[in-house]
Amino acid sequence: MLRSVSTRVVGLAILIGGIWGGIIPFVGPYFHFTLGPDHTWTWTTGRLYLDVLPAIAAVLGGLLLLGAGPWAAGRLGALLALVAGIWFVVGPDLSLLWKAGGELGAGHGSRTVQMLERLSFHTGLGVLIAALAAYGLPALLGHRAGRAEPRAGEPVGPPTTRAPLAPAPGGAPAGTTTERVAA
Questions:
Q1: What pLDDT does 138 receive?
Q2: Which of 24, 68, 99, 133 is deepest in the core (most CB within 10 A)?
Q3: CA distance 108 to 33
Q4: Distances (CA, A) of 70 to 26, 58, 77, 141, 180
């Protein structure tokens, strides 16, 4: 029950992160917080590939985790969110493969602001989404800590207990022998 609730909370957090990742490139220029064009609601292929598409995957994954009804849908949601988070992180570097200089665009403002832009638009957001998705995934795969499946031929049921050993002759502690070994 608790894991189901926490999986839904994870889904909500992923949903919020996905919405942030998809909308901040377009509204960030209002606050002088942007990568690439510094005009609001400017559409570029870089924003499509690096922001909008992973945001859509994260939002869908978050919604599937929020529903968390059928196990297969929850697994698909966690995997979608995991892929979205990874794409937010590595997408800007991989964009160097199809465009010289990459699709990311230039940061605006001081060095601190540029660092915060890169963290909140891509790297930090992607790591957060991927970590949350990874947290939600084991619950949906059915793994439980400390639970081992029985091996072939092993009896299934409660473990058996052995009777304690009787004291050895001559008052020696149980399990010991009173014989001397020649040196």
A1: 74
A2: 133
A3: 7
A4: 35, 19, 11, 12, 68
Q: pTM for this structure? A: 0.72
What lies within 8 Å, CB to CB, of 49 at 6+ separation is 91, 95, 103
Which residue shows structure tokens 């994954």? 61
Summarised one tens digit per residue, pLDDT across range 38-57 is 889 999 888 999 999 999 99
Residue 178 has pLDDT above 60, yes or no: no
Q: Which amino acid is at 86?
A: I
Give the distance from CA 163 to its chain's centroid.
Answer: 47
Task: Give 98's contacts (C-beta < 8 A, 6+ positions apart).
Answer: none
Q: What is the CA radius of gyration of the chain?
A: 28
* % helix, strand, coil for the chain, step of 5: 60, 0, 35
Single out the residue of 32, 38, 169, 140 nearest to residue 80, CA to CA.
140
What are the phi and psi torsion angles at 107 (to 5°)?
Answer: -80, 160
Tell me how far apart the alpha carbons of residues 12 and 151 are, in angstroms, rounded to a whole number: 39
